[in-house]
Design a protein that fits this description.
Cathepsin B, Chain A; 5 domains; seven-stranded mixed beta sheet; 28 helices; 34% helix
């Protein structure tokens, strides 16, 4: 019975105990004193130690976030996360020492913010495995998790129980490697351990990779939330290599502090009220970190793409004008072929999977197709909305055409390396538009996109990271159709008439990838000059400058980022509009942010559809509020007077030829100032200070201690801001205006501001004198820091050594932590005179 009580005490979760060196030393000694000849002896040792160990209960899990000042990002793990399929963009892979204790060090870091408590975690795991051996073995059998045994580095001839006992002995030895059996520390600390195993390929259900990405849930009850542990490698980031294997554990920490459990509960309640089911946010959608475009509706008409192409021709007005010799003529294709490729089979594939299928079909297809056929010939066949025009040899999938039709093909000999305006014009008027946007494109590809269907900001927000613009240019063309031919003429933008028929504006913008210099995105937008709604097409090409084509673009962190280390992906225009819409909604910003994450994960959007952080919602809420409320004109003073009427925060504004003052505070600030500064028993000293010059302005503000609050775990009171004055001059009249405004408002609200017990100012005579004139019943003191600086200045005028100066300063102000015997802490005039005389006697100048 005593052993049960000790074990119960040992398993309790408490907030009263703290992590300290004695606790660490105790667990180090306990694990070293274990007898390990056989299992029974080891179990008896544990039982005999439980009385000592039970004095140390489990300290409750803290909310640990990534601290860029103290924590290092594991670069190899970050690279593995980028290459893998997980959308853990809000988590940082933290570097962990690889000394055989990496698993327990990772748990220590995730639970308590430091790695040095790994021995205690190892010991608690060992206790749990020994005392609950039969329960864990039975659990493993019921759950049919044979992969525990398969992945344990043991002799094949051992049975399940022998494997488990062997892992117990491994756990009892310091610096011994951890295995899957040791993740039962989830039971030791009442937590869920979410495992993350990197993989490029999408794993199958019930596969080994799926189990390695599973969650080990607490069998009793999870009362401390999840901890995320990442399978990594200490020196190998080549995840695409078949020989890659994990040999290291690290933990994943969030970039920001958030109560996920509370938000999820609130989210579910709100969604249920709206009769919308929402899955648990801890179950991350299984999709790639650079996911494919989302599933689409079936294509409307695959058999007759002539109608689609002809619709683009219909936007052109037929003219009988005679063009000059410098006009460029393109022959339009008269016949349209049907593709033999089964688009229905490819509808749900990602771009990469479809390209792999095409490459496989090239090797098995007959080589009878004419080599002179243009790679863009398949543009005349039905275009699957999710499929790019692969430059390799998509023409192999076309039905046979006679030689004449091939030579007249409108897409003959198009080279993406030299792809330019005329190529784009030719494709824009003869090519089907896609029905879903390309997002994860890493091969030579071409797309025709209707900007009346998709927003341009959504088109340019792909999952390939950041780009750098270059080669921007705009040209004006007159484009007409005559007997099935395209007639194109460049015209001068200065002579454009709005009624001029068939005038099109062509804008070229090229982008170079920040991640890889050889990867380029070319965009050419073609729109009708006086009516973009009738025709607005963008031709988008992804091009490798050299023949080297990498399967994975390694994304980089944003160049301006100093804290976050996750890769940068541009947000789409739709997602940004959604953030702005959610930011002004009433309710919890955390809840709104979590809802956006849930919806994006549920619908398998690209990374550009996710909000970057909750700070975006705060930012746009403040910006929209600012732009909505504030007037703006060329007269700054008129704007000031108009905007002041929209809020009572600005109490008074005064300006003349040489001066300007604006006094600001709300009623709660003023009430708290008197409430805490004028309390009879325990009052806060009011501090008045003028900050540094902000441009041509000064800011003078009052601060006080909020005596009704404490910093968590301490007896210290937080500092709150009181009334503020913005001004351009630091004279007596300016500060007197500030003090009189406070006195005037106190009379209006019938609160006696002179109840304030004590005010501290610096040595500014104007500030000190102005407030002392108004607050006649208040005690005034000078700031010690300013007094110390003034005395130092006086001592510098004398020939004193630094040690002598420091001795005088200590006699007057004391030292940090002990000011009880200093001159400034004298309790009455007699003590002050006595200490002053001793100071004079001990100091010879």
């Amino acid at each position: 019975m005593d052993d049960e009580n000790h074990y119960y005490q040992f398993k309790m979760v408490t907030d009263r105990q703290k992590l300290h060196i004695n606790r660490t030393n105790t667990f180090n000694n306990l694990i070293k004193q274990l007898k390990q000849n056989n299992f029974d002896e080891l179990k008896n040792s544990i039982n005999s130690q439980l009385k000592t160990a039970s004095a140390f209960s489990i300290i409750r899990k803290r909310q640990i976030i990534f601290n860029p000042k103290n924590d290092l990002v594991d670069k190899i793990s970050r690279s593995l996360l980028i290459k893998s399929k997980f959308e853990l963009f809000d988590l940082a892979p933290v570097s962990i020492v690889g000394d055989g204790n990496c698993f327990f060090r990772s748990l220590s870091k995730a639970l308590y913010g430091e790695e040095k408590y790994d021995v205690e975690i190892r010991y608690r795991t060992l206790v749990e495995m020994i005392l609950r051996k039969d329960e864990f073995l039975e659990y493993a059998k019921q759950q049919k998790i044979d992969w525990f045994y398969n992945l344990s580095p043991s002799i094949d001839k051992l049975n399940e129980e022998e494997v488990f006992i062997e892992q117990i002995f491994n756990c009892s030895k310091l610096d011994s490697w951890s295995t899957l059996w040791h993740i039962f520390s989830a039971q030791a600390f009442s937590i869920d351990i979410c495992l993350v195993y990197p993989t490029i390929k999408k794993y199958q259900i019930n596969s080994m990779i799926e189990y390695l990405n599973g969650t080990i849930r607490c069998l009793d009850r999870s009362i401390q939330g999840p901890v995320r542990i990442f399978w990594s490698n200490s020196n190998d980031e080549k995840l695409e290599c078949p020989a890659w294997k994990a040999n290291h554990f690290i933990c994943l920490l969030p970039y920001r502090k958030i109560n996920y459990d509370e938000i999820i509960i609130k989210n579910k309640i709100e969604m249920e009220n709206e009769k919308r089911l929402l899955s648990d946010s801890s179950q991350v959608t299984k999709s790639q970190s650079r996911p494919s475009i989302k599933k689409i509706k079936p294509y409307i008409n695959f058999n007759n793409n002539y109608d689609q192409t002809n619709s683009n021709f219909n936007t052109l007005e037929f003219e009988n004008d005679v063009f000059d010799m410098d006009k460029i003529k393109f022959e339009a294709e008269d016949s349209f072929q049907k593709s033999s490729l089964s688009w229905n089979e490819n509808r749900d594939m990602s771009l990469i999977e479809q390209d792999e299928k095409l490459e496989h079909s090239e090797s098995t297809e007959s080589a009878s197709t004419d080599e002179e056929l243009s790679p863009l010939s398949n543009s005349l066949s039905p275009i699957h909305p999710n499929k790019s025009l692969s430059i390799e040899s998509v023409s192999d999938h076309l039905d046979c055409q006679d030689e004449t039709e091939k030579k007249n093909s409108n897409f003959k000999n198009v080279d993406l390396q030299t792809f330019h305006f005329f190529d784009a014009i030719r494709i824009a008027f003869t090519e089907n538009s896609v029905q879903s946007l390309p997002k994860s494109v890493d091969k030579n590809s071409l797309f025709c996109i209707d900007l009346n269907v998709f927003k341009e900001g959504d088109v340019l927000a792909d999952d390939n990271g950041a780009y750098k613009e270059y080669g921007n240019k705009t040209k004006i063309y007159k484009i007409a159709s005559n007997n099935g031919s395209l007639l194109v003429e460049k015209i001068d933008s200065k002579i454009i008439d709005n009624d001029f028929l068939n005038v099109f504006k062509c804008t070229k913008v090229f982008y170079k990838s920040i991640s890889i210099d050889n990867f380029i995105r070319k965009s050419i937008k073609i729109s009708k000059f006086n009516d973009t709604k009738s025709f607005n097409i963008m031709i988008l090409a992804y091009v490798w400058k050299k023949k080297i084509c990498l399967n994975n673009l390694e994304l980089k962190v944003h160049g301006n980022s100093t804290i976050n280390s996750h890769p940068y992906v541009r947000m789409s225009k739709t997602a940004l509009d959604k953030v702005k819409e959610e930011s002004i909604k009433i309710g919890s910003a955390s809840l709104n942010y979590n809802t956006m994450i849930e919806c994006a994960s549920k619908d398998e959007f690209s990374l550009g559809e996710y909000p970057r952080s909750i700070s975006q919602l705060y930012k746009y809420k403040s910006l929209q509020k600012k732009y909505k409320n504030n007037a703006s004109s060329k007269d700054e003073y008129a704007d000031l007077l108009i905007n002041r009427q929209k809020s009572d925060f600005v109490r008074s504004v005064n300006f003349d030829r040489y001066g300007f003052t604006a006094i600001m505070f709300d009623q709660q600030q003023f009430v708290d100032l008197i409430r805490f500064g004028g309390s009879e028993k325990n009052f806060s000293i009011i501090n008045i200070d003028t900050t540094f010059k902000l441009g041509r302005y000064y800011v003078t503000y009052l601060t006080f201690r909020n005596l009704s609050l404490n910093y968590n775990g301490t007896d210290c009171y937080p500092t709150f801001m009181g009334p503020v004055m913005v001004h351009v001059k630091r004279d007596f009249d300016t500060y007197l205006r500030f003090a009189l405004e406070l006195k005037h408002y106190s009379a209006c609200v019938k609160l006696d501001i002179e109840k304030i017990k004590c005010i501290i100012t610096d040595d500014d005579e104007a500030l000190h004198g102005a407030f002392k004139t108004v607050f006649t019943r208040t005690n005034f003191m000078l700031c010690c820091n300013h007094m110390r600086k003034d005395i130092y200045k006086i001592l510098n005028d004398y020939n004193l050594k630094d040690e002598e100066k420091e001795e005088i300063i200590q006699l007057i102000f004391g030292i940090n932590g002990d000011r009880s015997k200093s001159l400034i802490t004298s309790e009455d005039s007699e003590i002050y005179a006595d200490r002053a005389n001793k100071l004079l006697e001990s100091t010879v100048i």
